[in-house]
Design a protein that fits this description.
Layout lengths: L1 H26 L27 E6 L2 E3 L5 E7 L6 E4 L2 E8 L3 E5 L10 E7 L5 E12 L3 H12 L5 H4 L9 H12 L9 E2 L4 E2 L1 H4 L1 H9 L6 E5 L11 E5 L8 E11 L2 E8 L4 E5 H8 L4 E7 L2
Parallel strand pairs: 2-8
Antiparallel strand pairs: 1-3, 3-6, 4-5, 4-7, 5-6, 7-8, 9-10, 11-16, 12-13, 12-16, 13-14, 14-15
Length: about 300
């Protein structure tokens, strides 16, 4: 009996030890498959780097004509986030876009004013993403720049000390247009002149029908005639002649101050005297102000 009891006790002890070992294996993950416990030697992945903020670090070229139309390249970071750009508060069309470069077409300067202006890049929500204060310098460079810069200084501030005022003798519109052509680089001659603040002036200078006849008879001026509905040839600085009553007798003349392309339509704005204006709308002039009016353009070849 003593020996049997001893064997029975030893058997139970061995069975208990085996059960404890099996339990330990299960608890340590060594039995029955993989473990959810991380390997002590494994490395935790580094967090992804935050994207670089949108920034403009360079502008090239950083200056140009007040008439605009040249292309400027903006260099920086995360520029693919940019959906709109303004230069001096005027919309600048984006011509090509990338993460580090953005090409935009410079708009004409407001009022053809030579000045340093801000460049602002905005996102899809219209909120500014990057600003370059004074990042672009508008300059008066070309003959057209000089013509329109003069026009914007004097459309409502008559230069009477030099050219007088012809309103008392029928209107100052042709006198003003002639002044802008002098600013553009034309020179007075025996056929076209204004001396001593309009003490003496030629009909071709200050009288619309005579100005039109002189332009038509002087091919060396380099002007080409187009009807009012052929606007694809028209540029800032070109001349617009009007026949308000459409009776083959011209009444008015202005200078083109802006050419806009909107919704497949070309919109012409004008600067001039008599209804003194800086951006008068051509279509309004011939449909609202003077319904049924006619006329034509004189466009510069260069």
């Amino acid at each position: 009996m003593r020996s049997g009891l001893h064997r029975s006790t030893r058997s139970r002890f061995i069975a208990l030890a085996g059960a404890v070992a099996a339990t330990a294996l299960l608890l340590t993950g060594c039995a029955g498959g993989g473990s959810n416990t991380p390997d002590a030697g494994a490395k935790t992945p580094a967090p992804a780097a935050a994207p670089a903020p949108t920034a403009i670090t360079a502008v090239s070229p950083a200056s140009g004509s007040v008439s605009g139309t040249n292309t400027v390249t903006l260099t920086g970071t995360s520029l693919s986030n940019v959906k709109a750009v303004t230069i001096g508060g005027q919309a600048a069309a984006i011509s090509s876009s990338g993460s580090d470069k953005l090409a935009v077409v410079v708009p004409q300067a407001a009022m053809f004013n030579p000045a340093k202006v801000d460049i602002v890049a905005s996102g899809a929500d219209g909120k500014p993403l990057a600003t370059v204060a004074g990042g672009y310098q508008y300059q008066v460079v070309t003959p057209v720049d000089k013509q329109l810069n003069y026009a914007m200084q004097h459309w409502n501030n008559y230069n009477t000390s030099v050219y007088g005022d012809l309103n008392p003798v029928g209107g100052d519109c042709a006198n003003f247009v002639s002044q802008t052509l002098i600013a553009r680089g034309w020179a007075m001659n025996g056929d076209w002149y204004n001396h001593n603040a309009a003490a003496s002036w030629s009909p071709s200078w200050g009288y619309v029908p005579a100005m039109d006849t002189w332009i038509r008879s002087t091919p060396s001026l380099g002007l080409h005639e187009y009807p009012l509905d052929q606007r694809d040839k028209i540029k800032v600085g070109d001349i617009v002649m009007f026949d308000w009553n459409n009776n083959n007798s011209l009444d008015h003349v202005q200078i083109v101050s802006q050419v806009l392309h909107a919704n497949g339509k070309i919109v012409i704005k004008m600067v001039g005297h008599n209804t003194d204006s800086d951006y008068r709308d051509l279509d309004t002039a011939i449909t609202v102000d003077h319904p049924g009016a006619g006329g034509h353009f004189w466009s510069f070849s260069s």
